[in-house]
Amino acid sequence: MTAPVSSAPAPEAGAAAPALRMSLAPLGSKPALLDGAWWPRTRDLAAELPQLVAALDPLWGRITRITVNPTHWPSDFPRRVPVEEHVVKVGWFLGEQDPHQLLLLSYRTARWDLLVVPPETDPATAAWLMTAASDPLRTATGSQLVAEAADAPDVVTMPV
C-alpha cells in the first residue's frame, strides 16, 4: 500500500485533513528492518499520530503503543494520544531506538518499524526515502537511509 506523496499546505480551519503521507512494504513480504515510511507534516506528535494510527489500525490491528527516539521531537511530546475509540501510549528510548524510526506495537501483528521522513524534507528526497523504506529487500536502518539520501543527492532520480 502506498499513500500519495504530496507537499500540500496545511488545511484551513474546518477543512479536511490532508492525505496521510505513508508508504508500506507490500503485504505478505518477508520481514525487513523497516516496514515502510511515514512523512509527517510537523514534529507535533499529538497532532500527527492520530491520523497515522487511524490508518494503520485496520491493516495491522489496533495499535496500542508507539515508541520514539526523542532526538528529533520536541521534549513535550505526549505520553498518550487519543485515536478514535482508544488511547495509544507513547514512550521514548534515547539509546536503544534509531532516531529516524517509529516502533509501533499492535495486538494482532506485534511489531512494526517505520522510517520517519523529516517533515522539512523536499518532496523528491522524501519520495525516494519512502520507496526505499518500503522495499522489503533493503537492509538499511532509518538513519542509514536518511544519511544515504543526504550524502548522495544523485540517488534521488525519480520525479515527484
UniProtKB/TrEMBL annotation:
Pfam families: DUF5994 (PF19457). InterPro entries: DUF5994. This is DUF5994 family protein. It comes from Streptomyces sp. R08.
